[in-house]
Amino acid sequence: MRLKDKVVLVTASTRGIGLAIVKACAKEGAIVYMAARNLEKAGEVAKELNDKGYRVKTVYNDAYKKDTYVSMIEEAVKNEGKIDVLVNNFGTSNPKLDLDIKNTTYEEYINTIDTNLASVFISSQKAIEYMSKNGGGSIINISSIGGIVPDISQIAYTTSKASINYLTKLIAVQCARDNIRCNAVLPGMTATDAVKDGLTEEFKEFFLKHIPIKRMGEPEEIAATVVYLASDEAAYTTGQIIDVSGGFGLATPIYGDMINLKTKR
Question: Which of 36, 47, 102, 115 could be joined to 42 by an S-S link, Cβ 3.0–4.6 Å?
Fold first, then answer.
């Protein structure tokens, strides 16, 4: 029960990594708020978890309505009297429009960056207001390995994630005296339904050649890192950019080809 009675709010929480985080925090004793646009779907998930003895509630958040990042925090605090942990899990990109520097419009670039950064900046700013009064808290930003390893596409998305990594460090430094910690978790290729269904087998096979652990990560493995950062076990950990990617980007760039060579150099 590492998060016993802590109030945790998770954005984009009805599926994938977000849902795994909700379940992991609930199992550790937290009161978890699922921030979602589809409250009906979130309510179904919450009921299922509550029937198992957990404490999960819902709160409205539309990633494209910036005022809801304030209202979701305020509603959770109004109900519980505090917020201990904020998990900024939302992130978006249109892969058909978010391409490379040659083929991405400035409007698409800026809109994607604005949406993704707003989801972290506005919610964190409001949570910090209450955490400061409550003696501290933990903010965990779900970034991406693409935020530290340059990609050949998704220029807007990866720029936003790189910015979130630096924003994480700024929050950590500027709020440490208020006992507020801020860290980022960077998933690599993770076996969410969106990834499993949205990528071709050929691409997945190619990508996995460059992951030393030789498999996709599981959403629960990302959630396990989040639970640690949310808990008092990480009381001395702040400003860290932690990749959970199976070692992607760690080895030589020709790793994927060298590992299959039959001859030794």
Answer: 36
Q: Which residue has the tokens 């978006």?
A: 92
Residue 54: active-site member: no
State the pairing for strand pair 7-11/85-88. parallel
- pTM here is 0.94
Note whether 229 and 258 are within 8 A (CB): no
At 115-150, the pLDDT tens digits run 999 999 999 999 999 999 999 999 999 999 999 999
One-character DSSP codes across 71-105: HHHHHHHHHHS---EEEE------TTT---TTT--
- CB 116 within 8 Å of CB 91: yes
The dihedrals phi and psi of 131, each to the nearest 5 degrees, come to -60, -35
Token digits for 179? 């006992």
Q: Which of 33, 54, 69, 157 is catalytic?
A: 157
CA distances from 5 to 28, 143, 215, 229 (A): 9, 26, 35, 16
Maximum alpha-carbon separation in the chain: 65
Nearest to 124 by CA among 157, 86, 181: 86
The tokens of 197 are what?
A: 């269904």
Architecture of domain 7-198+216-250: 3-Layer(aba) Sandwich (3.40)
CB atoms within 10 A of CB 237: 14
Q: What's the CA gap between 239 and 212, in Å, rounded?
A: 26
